[in-house]
């Protein structure tokens, strides 16, 4: 499979009055065509900012891409002008958001919002665009799509609105869809439907999807590969099955252990002590070291690289062969 | 239905106005009879005007006239109040509309530019204009532009309502403050709208700045702008008194001043009632416009 997207050493920072706080601290990952890649992490780990950086949608934040490349089909998106970038948004790269209640414009009819993007990126005339919009709405499982074209967002339920947003963002057949916590605000049954819908769309169109979530359960259902993010870095990257079977990084282990399990009588839910470090007070060495149960002296001093074990690459000194050998020699 | 609700409101307004007007010190009977009239002549004038009857009874006499469309007669000139007002209402309405139209158009333009180029020079220039508009009292603006454009340059007449040129300066003086308020409201409301999630959605679809501002954000920002424009319009209808005086404009504002000086009760009452009615109507229209702008508050 060919690489659809390749992110190299992406750094995004928030400008403060006197300095820059790095939110995304040099991440590398890639996405194959037709692949669903999960990005998991807790709040503040930089996963949404990563998505907004790829889309170059940092307008409304104090954020700014500091360095790195976002190669989409061989074009570095970070080098494009705003005008050139607009041709990619909605047509090549689309995005769906967390809050379906507020992502649609409340004062414009669904039809207007659907047709707008189609008219912008295709050669279709108004009538054809209308037809295409209705068909796309039907394809995401919206009943009475024709009527809904004339309705306003507040007349629809949350799940329906998320379907409308999905329809809107796939209506121009993008090759890459970024889904930023698309199911977080929905209740569980609707969540399941939306996940199934995204998977079906992916199968039908072959688009690549970056699926951002904090919910490992969702990842296990939908993703082919997973990147685990912590404090603006990717700390572990693996195929979904490998990650769930043999998690390597202590952080990933903690995340998986904290999923409540059916049938287990647990007095307390397992959790990782502490919180994500503050942006302007990053620990030296490994960023996870203050919360890690396996912390070594080295973790406080050096920043770990990626180490490969069992098809998993993981940013943790526990998997540093050299270190292990060194230890055994002593 | 909503129009029927207005009737009790207007009755209350008429009562309050009637009482207040009669509380103002001063004696119209004395003014009508003349400075050197005898006591008997003054009493005669008083009874002709029904001013010797108890206040409540006067109110009922007035209201029973009002219900059959009789606004009474001016104490000063003897002409019917309806006639006096209809002579003056057109220039006033013209002035009001001219002011509100330019103030809304220019105010919204400045607001949109300021919000779109927030914290850059168009914003700073726009907000400087707005602050000047709010801070400078309209009578002062009126006097200054009379001095510059009428006295020195001779471009416009100093007063009156004889031609369309004579509307330009009063409507400028009257609209400047309103323009400024509308500019500020448009700006803050638009800035708020531009922060919303659906704007990010619009950008993610590849929309340009123009479509974002005019196609998505502006309509969402209109509610506060319409509210403040409606209120200002309401104030304008009765509040052009000062500007009309500065420009000796033959409108309702100068009529009100004259009538108050003469304690011309029927005219004062009719005018204030008219202003109240206009205010209520404007609010009513504003409510209807809300429905067009925001589908959530559409009235069925």
TrEMBL record, chain A:
The keyword Isomerase does not apply. Keywords: ATP-binding, Cell membrane, Membrane, Nucleotide-binding, Transport. InterPro entries: AAA+_ATPase, ABC_Ni/Peptide_Import, ABC_transporter-like_ATP-bd, ABC_transporter-like_CS, Oligopep_ABC_C, P-loop_NTPase. GO terms for molecular function: ATP binding; ATP hydrolysis activity. The keyword Membrane applies. GO terms for cellular component: plasma membrane. Gene3D superfamilies: P-loop containing nucleotide triphosphate hydrolases. Residues 5-256 form the ABC transporter domain. PANTHER family: DIPEPTIDE TRANSPORT ATP-BINDING PROTEIN DPPD (PTHR43297:SF2), OLIGOPEPTIDE TRANSPORT ATP-BINDING PROTEIN APPD (PTHR43297). This is ATP-binding cassette domain-containing protein. It comes from Salinicoccus hispanicus.
From TrEMBL, chain B:
Part of the ABC transporter complex GsiABCD involved in glutathione import. Probably responsible for the translocation of the substrate across the membrane. SUPFAM superfamilies: MetI-like. It is a multi-pass membrane protein. Residues 89-286 form the ABC transmembrane type-1 domain. It comes from Salinicoccus hispanicus. One of its GO terms (biological process) is nickel cation transport. It is found in: Cell membrane. The chain crosses the membrane at residues 6-24, 89-113, 125-155, 167-186, 222-247, 267-293. This is Glutathione transport system permease protein GsiC. One of its GO terms (cellular component) is plasma membrane. CDD domains: TM_PBP2. Keywords: Cell membrane, Ion transport, Membrane, Nickel, Nickel transport, Transmembrane, Transmembrane helix, Transport. The keyword NADP does not apply. Belongs to the binding-protein-dependent transport system permease family. InterPro entries: BPD_transp_1_N (IPR045621), MetI-like (IPR000515), MetI-like_sf (IPR035906).
């Amino acid at each position: 499979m060919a690489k659809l997207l390749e992110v190299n050493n992406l750094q995004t920072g928030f400008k403060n009055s006197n300095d820059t706080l790095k939110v995304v601290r040099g991440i590398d990952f890639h996405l194959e065509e037709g692949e669903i890649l999960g990005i998991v992490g807790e709040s503040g780990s930089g996963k949404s900012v990563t998505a907004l950086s790829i889309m170059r949608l940092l307008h409304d934040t104090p954020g700014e891409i500091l360095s790195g490349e976002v190669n989409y089909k061989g074009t570095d998106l970070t080098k494009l002008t705003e005008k050139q970038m607009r041709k990619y948004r909605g047509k090549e790269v689309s995005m769906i958001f967390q809050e379906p209640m507020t992502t649609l414009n409340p004062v414009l009819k669904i039809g207007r919002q659907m047709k707008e993007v189609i008219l912008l990126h295709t050669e279709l005339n108004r009538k054809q665009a209308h037809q295409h919009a209705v068909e796309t709405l039907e394809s995401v499982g919206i009943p009475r799509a024709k009527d809904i074209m004339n309705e306003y967002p507040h007349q629809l339920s949350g799940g329906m609105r998320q379907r409308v947003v999905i329809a809107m963002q796939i209506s121009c057949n993008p090759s890459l869809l970024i889904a930023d916590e698309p199911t977080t605000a929905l209740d569980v049954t609707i969540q399941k439907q939306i996940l199934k819908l995204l998977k079906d769309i992916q199968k039908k169109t072959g688009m690549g999807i970056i699926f951002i979530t904090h919910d490992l359960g969702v990842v296990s259902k939908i993703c082919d590969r997973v990147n685990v993010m912590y404090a603006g870095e990717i700390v572990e990257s693996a195929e979904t099955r490998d990650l769930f079977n043999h998690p390597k990084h202590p952080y990933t282990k903690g995340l998986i252990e904290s999923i409540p399990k059916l049938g287990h009588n647990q007095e307390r839910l397992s959790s990782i002590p502490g919180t994500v470090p503050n942006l302007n007070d990053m620990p030296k060495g490994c960023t996870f070291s203050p919360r890690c149960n396996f912390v070594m002296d080295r973790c406080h001093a050096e920043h770990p690289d990626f180490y490969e074990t069992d098809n998993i690459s993981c940013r943790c000194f526990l998997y540093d062969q050299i270190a292990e050998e060194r230890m055994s020699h002593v | 239905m909503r129009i029927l609700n207005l009737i009790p409101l207007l009755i209350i307004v008429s009562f309050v106005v009637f009482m207040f007007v009669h509380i103002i010190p001063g004696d119209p009977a004395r003014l009508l009879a003349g400075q050197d009239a005898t006591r008997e002549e003054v009493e005669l004038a008083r009874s002709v005007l029904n001013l010797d009857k108890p206040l409540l009874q006067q109110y009922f006499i007035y209201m029973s006239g009002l219900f059959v469309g009789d606004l009474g007669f001016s104490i000063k000139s003897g002409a019917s109040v309806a006639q006096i007002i209809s002579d003056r209402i057109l220039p006033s309405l013209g002035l009001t509309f001219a002011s509100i139209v330019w103030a809304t158009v220019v105010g919204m333009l400045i607001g949109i530019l300021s919000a779109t180029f927030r914290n850059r020079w168009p914003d700073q220039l726009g907000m400087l204009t707005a602050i000047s508009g709010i801070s400078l009292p309209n009578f002062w603006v009126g006097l200054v532009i009379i001095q510059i454009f009428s006295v020195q340059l001779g471009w416009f007449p100093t007063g009156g309502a004889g031609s369309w040129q004579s509307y330009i300066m009063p409507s400028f003086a009257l609209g400047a403050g309103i323009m400024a308020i509308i500019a500020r409201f448009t700006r803050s409301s638009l800035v708020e709208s531009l922060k919303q999630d659906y704007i990010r959605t619009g950008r993610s679809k590849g929309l340009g700045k123009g479509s974002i501002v005019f196609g998505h954000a502006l309509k969402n920002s209109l509610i506060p702008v319409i509210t403040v424009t409606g209120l200002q319009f309401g104030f304008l209808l009765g509040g052009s008194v000062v500007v009309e005086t500065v420009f000796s404009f033959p409108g309702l504002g100068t009529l009100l001043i004259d009538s108050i000086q003469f304690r011309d009760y029927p005219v004062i009452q009719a005018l204030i009632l008219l202003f109240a009615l206009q205010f209520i109507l404007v609010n009513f229209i504003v409510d209807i416009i809300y429905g067009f702008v925001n589908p959530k508050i559409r009235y069925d």
